[in-house]
UniProtKB/TrEMBL annotation:
Lineage top rank: taxon: Eukaryota
Family the UniProt entry places it in: Belongs to the beta type-B retroviral polymerase family. HERV class-II K(HML-2) pol subfamily.
Protein name: Gypsy retrotransposon integrase-like protein 1
Broad enzyme group: hydrolase
GO molecular function annotation: nucleic acid binding; RNA-directed DNA polymerase activity; RNA-DNA hybrid ribonuclease activity
InterPro entries, per database record: DNA/RNA_pol_sf, Integrase_cat-core, Integrase_H2C2, Integrase_p58-like_C, Retrovirus_Pol_polyprotein, Rev_trsase/Diguanyl_cyclase, RNaseH-like_sf, RNaseH_sf
SUPFAM superfamilies registered for this protein in UniProt: DNA/RNA polymerases (SSF56672), Ribonuclease H-like (SSF53098)
Gene3D superfamilies: 1.10.340.70, 3.10.20.370, 3.30.70.270, Ribonuclease H-like superfamily/Ribonuclease H (3.30.420.10)
CDD domains: RNase_HI_RT_Ty3 (cd09274), RT_LTR (cd01647)
Annotated ranges, domain Integrase catalytic: 456-552
Amino acid sequence: MPFGLCNAPATFERLMEQVLAAVPRSRCVMYLDDLLVHASDFQQALANLTDVLAAIRQAGLQLNPKCQLLRRETAFLGHIISERGVATDPSKVAAVRDWPVPGNVAQAALTEAPVLAYPDAQRLFIFDTDASNTGVGAVLSQEDKDGERVVAYYSRALGKAERNYCVNRRELLAVVRALHHFRPYLQGSHFLLRTDQASLTWLLNFKDPEGQVARWLEQLQGYDFEIRHRAGRLHGNADALSHRPCAAQECRYCSRQEERDQVSPDVMVVQASGDAEGWLPLMPMELREAQEADSTLGKVRGWLEAGQHPERSVVSAESPELKSYYSLYSSLVQRDGLLYRRWQAPGRGSDILQLLVPRAFRPDVLRLVHGSVGVGHFGNNKTLHQLRGKFHWPGCRHDVELHVHCCDSCTAQKGPNQRSRAPLKQHLVGAPMEQTRVRRRRRRKGSWRRCSPRFGAPAELHSDQGRNFESQVLAEVCKRLGVTKTRTTPLHPQSDGLVERFNRTLATKLAILASQHQRDWDRHLPLVLWAYRSAVQESSQLTPAALMFGRELRTPVDLVFGAPPEPEEPSRTREEYYHRLRNRLLVAHDFACKAQASAGFKQKRWYDTRCRGRAFAAGEQVWVYCPERKKGLSPKLRASWRGPGEVVEWLSEVVYRIRVPGRGRLVVLHQDRLAPYRPLATSDAAEPEVSSNTALPSEPEPSDTPLSASGRHKRHRRPPGHLRDFDVQMLVNRVK
């Protein structure tokens, strides 16, 4: 049935009623082209579905491929039908559900999850509309015993031309667009139209309307409504939808619009009954309870409360962390029920008190001193000094270095410390035109027609992932000619290194020959190609012309001094010339293959000396190098690494299939774009053993080492691991 006929819906509905007349409505509900076959169990659903399909087949109708069969939940006529009953369609509350972060408490109240009411045709519909400089909004509601209940929401942004409308025209536009959206509810029934624009109360009394306004008023003639003015302070429901802020943080237009409208920046609304996002100050009682619950600090508290230094034999079998606190006993104090360490900071005239942090709060302290607002994600030394100014625990230097190394924000911006460099993977060619590599910025219509008839179809075609090379047309051409199509991995031009190196040579020669205005470079291109094809290649030790044609090209040198004579007598017959040329090509190809293999071995041996990193296993988390560029954004302020991604499959020696973070799509990437991912430690992690064998940066040995009586240098012994964060020299000075 053609679309657009005025009686098409009724005619099609009558047809479906006749086709499914034998199927009771208790098993199949229909509305135009929507059929809902329902049942209480699986067997009954199969039986009902069989009856419906048989009736449709008998009538000669066909079902749309988008049909959904045997679903537990489906959308039908603006509602979600499931075994739990009838629910609201998410699209009807999208205008409120997708609301950005509110800017104040009043806006936060508008974003509470709305409870929509079912429309009742026996009650009066209340239709509220409003327009702003950027959008229009509308709310359809009805009154019941609980007051006004929302039926549906509507909002949309104004176009470029619509933003230039006057206030009255924008308000009228909001009415027309919203009425068209809610037409199934309001058509044929009397409703109340409320607006905060008093001029619209005289909407139907306009004299001699023209143009667009006349067409809009003509559309409104099909509705039965009453217009009522409503004060703006009472019209907040539709007004909020028309001023809906943009959810995109990188929208330049909305940022400028908010500056013009003087919109306050986003603030965080914290509900008293929910968990607040962000950092809340800890009470001293919570810190004291955490210190008492800590297995190590609980024993230290017992020492201080007893007021006596325990014997060495008491801690000889304890953990290295407790031994570290044992050596610091003279500097440990207790203030207001909390444990502190008295420490003389360098450059300060007096001692400071460092809070002894229990193990449960150490990850939080590390995040605060490194990544919170006002500390700036600095390196190891600055973060360690920031921590030591207020806190202490044994092995804090090692924990700081590990936290900085595993910080996602730092790694995404600065890049991982352990970047991969995979071994060189070579692509050796055994014969001319066996493997063809292309890279073109723009595709010309006759490029393939000129290449294939002249040299024949290659066995393999290698290119980057440009749209021209990944098109369906080229794929079909390669399929018919028996050409194997391969491609490079994204953002890794080294996969097509032969073409990249040739382009570099070509660009260098053109730069030498081109004039200063650079508009005649295309005239020199044939001369550059002539010179390149007659030059001996370093890898094959032969010229491209000799490998392709079995003879050398005549160059300007031959034109001036003449070509040297052939050592052999010229061929007398065609067969003799053919056999001589064939033997010459076989010798040249064999020599070129051996020379290329030798050169490739040297190149790979030199390249692999700088390889680093390791292979990745399936399921391992990795960093992914994704340098994106967006218009209007500085690349220096954007992170080039994203993580964590997941290794899904190992495809070759240096190529992996990765599930990138974000949308979770699968991409094929080279190992050079990957780096191992190390997550941050959590507060409930197992207690690590602090030992002296932990790999940490050692102090540089002084050059002026004193000599002993025997003439040897005195041996400098490193302090044990539990004294790593203790100033040993200060203790020696105090003892002296």
